[in-house]
């Protein structure tokens, strides 16, 4: 048992390293290559197309990636997709050296790299309970959140530095080395440490039946259905802030670009702080209560965001105010996302994990463009106050309904116990 725990500890840090390579590398690649396209063509549309190339493949193919993760050895999927990523970037480097770099070559590379990394991500996320002991699932989920947050902060910074100070060839070589290191590390991991790969019954399903079974599993599990629904709702309403932050700060309040960059970075810093918090604290006793509290805080912060538009505040006060609000928003988002991840890891059967996470990713990525379009229209029509205040109130109402007492008790029936309050307070 001691040997198994040591192996799980090794997995915890190799998982963090691999996720770092995947998330951080992808963030650097997309930002640097989009800047390269913008410089090369001078077209904002070409810049936007490259960003779309990172969204559409995930929206369309994530359920397929989930099916593959549930029906084939996860280690083979992870290693194969990382090797494919290595070959894709190497191919771009060879093409650039022999033919020069074209916009179409970048688009093709972005699409293929997005697909390969999506397979890696879904397979890895659905493998957490097989790689790591149950007592550290929250820690692994929190580390995952920390890596994503750090990638959000550092990816554009490093990508911009590489773009400004080094040839594009050097940038691609660094990327190739990173993928090579990831493959070497992942090859040492045991993806069956806490469970077998698949059953004979699972092999008999064809792809369509398997994907349909994934949707049916979510539909038949009220708690899982609620968690997935909450995740999609949060993802959609986050679009109100992603559109509203630059619109309010830059266009309306005329915040200096340097201060705006700091305020945006603090959002990811809050998420990073939340990841650290969950990585060092004991497992939460009632995760769905944490999700509810985090969402209530998030909706209140969203309504609070318009305060400087109503009350006259000095410029320095505006910068400090929005820095604090963004820090709290980032923390509250992690306060929601980490317990959701832990609940899904613990409650979804191993044979369905890939499909559930794939469906979740498809829903999230497909809702974001719709959210951007809708909120872009609403901001122009109603302004920031008329947009954020109703959105915050509506999110508050949706949270209270979707996480009503009946749902909370069905997920945590022990809350009916007289000792439940004491237990809850000791963990939260």
Structure, described:
The chain is mainly α and 428 residues long. The chain has two domains: 1-204, MFS general substrate transporter like domains (Growth Hormone, Chain: A, Up-down Bundle), CATH 1.20.1250.20; 206-428, Up-down Bundle (Growth Hormone, Chain: A). Helix content is 84%, strand content 0%. It is built from 18 helices and no strands. It has helices at 2-41, 44-52, 56-71, 74-99, 103-125, 128-131, 137-165, 168-186, 200-203, 207-220, 222-252, 257-280, 287-304, 307-310, 315-347, 353-402, 405-411, 420-427. Helix 4 (74-99) packs antiparallel against helix 8 (168-186). The chain starts with a helix and ends with a helix. The mean pLDDT is 82.
The structure class reads mainly alpha
Count every helix, treating DSSP H or I runs of 4 or more residues as helices.
18
Strand content: under 5%
Q: What is the CATH topology classification name of the largest domain?
A: Growth Hormone, Chain: A
What top-tier CATH class of the largest domain fits best? Mainly Alpha
Query: How many β-strands, per DSSP?
Result: 0
Overall mean confidence score, pLDDT: 82
| Percent range of helical residues | over 70%
In short:
With 428 residues, the protein is mostly helical. The protein has 18 helices and no strands. The protein folds into 2 domains: 1-204, MFS general substrate transporter like domains (Growth Hormone, Chain: A, Up-down Bundle); 206-428, Growth Hormone, Chain: A (Up-down Bundle), CATH 1.20.1250.20.
Task: For the structure shown, list the relevant keywords.
0% strand; single chain; Growth Hormone, Chain: A; mainly alpha; globular; 2 domains; 428 residues
């Amino acid at each position: 048992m001691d040997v198994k725990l040591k192996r799980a500890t090794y997995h915890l840090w190799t998982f963090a390293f691999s996720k770092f390579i995947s998330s951080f590398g992808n963030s650097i690649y997309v930002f640097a290559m989009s800047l390269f396209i913008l410089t090369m063509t001078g077209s904002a549309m070409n810049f936007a197309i490259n960003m779309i190339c990172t969204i559409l493949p995930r929206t369309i193919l994530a359920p397929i990636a989930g099916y593959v993760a549930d029906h084939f050895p996860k280690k083979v999927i992870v290693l194969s997709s990382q090797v494919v990523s290595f070959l894709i970037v190497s191919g771009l480097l060879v093409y650039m050296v022999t033919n020069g770099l074209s916009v179409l070559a970048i688009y093709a590379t972005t699409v293929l790299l997005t697909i390969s990394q999506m397979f890696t991500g879904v397979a890895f996320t659905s493998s957490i309970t097989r790689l790591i002991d149950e007592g550290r699932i929250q820690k692994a989920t929190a580390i995952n959140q920390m890596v994503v947050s750090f990638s959000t902060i550092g990816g554009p910074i490093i990508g911009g530095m590489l773009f400004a100070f080094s040839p594009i060839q050097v940038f691609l070589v660094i990327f190739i080395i990173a993928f090579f290191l990831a493959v070497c590390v992942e090859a040492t991991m045991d993806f069956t440490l806490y469970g077998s790969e698949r059953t004979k019954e699972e092999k008999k399903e064809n792809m369509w039946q398997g994907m349909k079974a994934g949707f049916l599993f979510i539909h038949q599990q009220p708690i899982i259905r609620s968690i997935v629904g909450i995740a999609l709702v949060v993802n959609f309403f986050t679009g109100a802030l992603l559109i509203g932050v630059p619109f309010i700060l830059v266009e309306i309040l005329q915040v200096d670009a340097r201060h705006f960059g700091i305020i945006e970075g603090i959002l990811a810093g809050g998420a990073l702080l939340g990841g650290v918090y969950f990585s060092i604290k004991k497992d939460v006793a009632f995760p769905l209560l944490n999700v509810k509290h985090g969402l209530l805080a998030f909706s209140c912060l969203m309504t609070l965001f318009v305060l400087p538009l109503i009350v006259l505040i000095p410029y320095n006060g505006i910068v400090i105010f929005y820095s604090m609000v963004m820090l709290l928003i980032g923390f509250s988002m992690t306060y929601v996302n980490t317990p959701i991840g832990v609940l899904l890891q613990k409650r979804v059967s191993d044979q369905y994990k890939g499909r559930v996470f794939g469906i979740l990713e498809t829903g999230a990525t497909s809702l974001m463009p719709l959210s951007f379009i809708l909120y872009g229209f609403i901001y122009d029509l109603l302004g920031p106050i008329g947009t954020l205040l109703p959105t915050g109130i509506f999110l508050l109402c949706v949270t209270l309904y979707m996480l009503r007492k009946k749902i909370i008790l069905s997920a945590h029936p022990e809350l009916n116990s007289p000792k439940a309050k004491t237990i809850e307070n000791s963990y939260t």
